[in-house]
Amino acid sequence: MPDSISFPRNFLWGSATSSFQIEGATDEDGRSESIWDRFCKQQDAIADNSNGNVACDHYHRYKEDVQLLSSLGLQAYRFSIAWPRVIPAGTGAINQKGLDFYDRLVDELLNANISPYATLYHWDLPQILEDKNGWVNRDTAYAFADYTKAVVDRLGDRVASWATLNEPFVSASLGYKTGEHAPGRKSPTDSFAAAHHLLLAHGLAMPVIREFAPKSDAGIVLNFTPCYPATDSAEDKKAANTTDGWDNRWYVEPIAGLGYPADAVEALGWDQKEIQPDDLNIISTPIDFLGINYYTRQLQRADGKEPVKPLPQTDMGWEIYPQGIYETLTRLHNSHGFKKYFITENGAAFADNADESDFVDDQNRVDYFHDHLQQVHRAIQSGVPVNGYFAWSLFDNFEWAFGYEKRFGLVRVNYETLERVPKASALWFGEVAKSNQIPER
Ligand code: GCO
Predict the structure, then answer these.
(1) pLDDT category of residue 3 using cuts at 50, 70 and 90
(2) Mean local confidence (pLDDT), 239-256
(3) Mapping DSSP to helix (H, G, I), strand (E, B) and coil, where does residue 404 land?
């Protein structure tokens, strides 16, 4: 492999965030409570007992943040929109003040020549809908389509690309099955219903985006974690296949028109009673792009014991496995042949050491990006149409159940002063974006 690698012309370089993780201002301009505001109040739900009340204060500092994106040389910004700001009651009246914020943000991005990539749902459901059974209730899917209309009607003329959902797997599985995420439920049955209604929500929203933003791309962002048996035993192989079905195939296969993965449905014992006659047609509405979030691989044991992890790990305890991003891209393209792909998230948490000026010389994070980008490039060379790459994340931010203890940012946030200081990885990544090349390392 040559030392310096060029990407295709027009390859898009960006960074990603999500509303609850950075915005703060949870009580302002008519925003209602989200399931994450409620979850943060539960004792021990969040490692450092923190919440999103201030987060990175992006709601007030968005202008400075757009300048930061611009000074780094990034060409695109992936952000999400908070449903509780736009339709505080979950359904019904639109709160224009909530939409005004995103309107200002989008204009600021366009003025700085940064392409807005919006995600409609990154896990912050209005609590009022959870009170009516959340994603277990089929009505939530229809409410999502109405919310989509409100947003796209206002911003559709300026947003380049719309993703319906971010990682429905995490919403359904961590939110409704393991209880690690909001709303903190622990019911496998509910998680099957939630997964189906999330997919239905996606399918119902697609034609709404097409109608109100005919020139924009419309698609979805899914997370993929290649899954391997920890040993060669038949039991571990079966366990790995089932986990692969639930984690990696459950969403993409219905979207690709193949229905749910029958092996995993059977192994996990879903009775599929939520599926109504036209649902699978709605869910398989063609998408313009598939967004892929990739972080690590997983090893599976049938006996439920913790597998030995032989590879170096990030601060999340996630193995660093760059080849997995290549495996994911080629597997998806060979199986489904979507028109185009974006890496919508990829990045690493490390226990950063900041100097007196808050600068972090995070060569470990640079290595992570470098090695994963090499593998993205390899996938492109084998014919996968990857159109862009978004580093997760622009900032250190609220890392869900880990609170502010895990830092994924290209840019350090000092949580006392809220000052932003680009890390070495931000400067490195900015050079990659500007040169469209991964430099020698
Ligand atoms: C994700 C999430 C991010 C997380 C990141 C690190 O979509 O998984 O979008 O919000 O912060 O994945 O865990």
Answers:
(1) low
(2) 98
(3) coil
Q: Is the pLDDT of residue 1 over 90?
A: no
Where are the extended beta strands (E) located within 89-213?
A: 115-121, 161-166
Is the Cβ–Cβ distance between 94 and 150 less than 8 Å?
Answer: yes
pLDDT of residue 2: 52
Verify whether ligand 1 is closer than 6 Å to residue 399 (CB atom).
Answer: yes
Report which protein residue has its CA nearest ligand 1's atom 11: 399
Sequence-distant (6+) residues with CB within 8 A of 414 are 354, 358, 421
Q: Tens digit of pLDDT for each residue in 261-306? A: 999 999 999 999 999 999 999 999 999 999 999 999 999 999 999 9
Nearest CA to ligand 1 atom 13: 399
Please give the average per-residue pLDDT across 91-104, as a whole number.
98
Residue 32 has phi, psi (to 5 degrees) of -100, 175
CB atoms within 10 A of CB 55: 25
**If DSSP codes are grouped into helix, strand and coil, which group holds residue 362?**
coil
Reduce the DSSP state of residue 426 to 3 states and report it.
helix
Looking at residue 245, the DSSP 8-state letter turns out to be I
Spell out the domains of the chain, with CATH numbers in brackets: 4-221+310-439 (3.20.20.80)
Q: Which of 119, 400, 402, 410 to mutate to test the pocket of ligand 1 (most atoms within 8 A of CB)?
A: 400
Q: Return the percent helix, strand and coil in the chain, to nearest 5.
A: 40, 15, 40
- Show which residues are catalytic: 167, 345
pLDDT at residue number 435? 97
**Does ligand 1 come within 6 angstroms of the Cβ of 392?**
yes
The alpha-helical segments, DSSP class H, found in 337-423 are 363-381
Q: Is 171 near ligand 1, meaning CB less than 6 Å away?
A: no
Q: Are 200 and 280 in contact (CB under 8 A)?
A: no
| CA 180–ligand 1 middle distance (angstroms) | 13
Q: How far apart are the first and last CA of the chain?
A: 12
Instruction: Output the residue whose Cα is nearest ligand 1's atom 9.
Output: 166
Q: Is the beta carbon of 19 within 6 A of some atom in ligand 1? A: no
Residue showing tokens 């990829």: 346
Averaged pLDDT, 406-423: 98
157-172 average pLDDT score: 98
The CA 409 to ligand 1 mean position distance, Å, reads 12
In angstroms, the CA 328 to CA 372 distance is 12
Tell me what pLDDT residue 10 has. Answer: 96
| Protein residue with least CA distance to atom 1, ligand 1 | 167
pTM for the structure as a whole: 0.98
